[in-house]
Amino acid sequence: QVQLVESGGGLAQPGGSLRLSCVASGFTFSEYAMSWARQAPGKELEYVSGIYPDGTNIYYKDSVKGRFTISRDNTKNTLYLQMNSLKPEDEGLYFCAKVGDPSRGQGTQVTVSS
After folding, report:
1. Nearest-CA neighbor of 89 among 43, 56, 53, 52?
2. I want to staple 30 with a disulfide (CB 3.0 to 4.6 A). Which of 74, 78, 108, 110 is the partner?
3. In the prediction, which pLDDT does 57 show?
4. Cα 18 from Cα 108, distance rounded (Å)
């Protein structure tokens, strides 16, 4: 079964950076597109970024373009999200996902506050 373990969240100051990681197992990671999504309290889950199996065709939500970078290491079954110039509106519980699969990990909390 699909297992996803996110890490790397924490408290960052506005303008700061965090790097999220997601270790995947239970499927052939290198064959599937992956994505990051986030959910702020009281709000719906929103899609933040996605990446094709070979690292191409990258998508970003408009509000994170130029600040976030998604990447993957297929040799380590790991998905990353480098988040720079963080803003308070970036706060939320961040999840990674295998595109087309409803499985979710526990998520990793990102808090942006001075």
Report:
1. 43
2. 74
3. 79
4. 11
Q: Which residue has the tokens 């924490």?
A: 10
Q: CB neighbours (10 Å) of residue 24?
A: 23
Write out the two tokens for 80: 């990353």
Nearest to 68 by CA among 44, 50, 95: 50
- Answer for the pair 57, 51: CB distance below 8 angstroms, yes or no: yes
Q: How far is CA 99 from the centre of its chain?
A: 12
Classify 85 as helix, strand or coil: coil
For 33-61, write each residue's pLDDT tens digit. 999 999 998 999 999 999 999 988 789 99
- In eight-state DSSP terms, residue 16 is -
Residue bearing tokens 């309290």: 41
Between CA 80 and CA 21 the distance in angstroms is 5
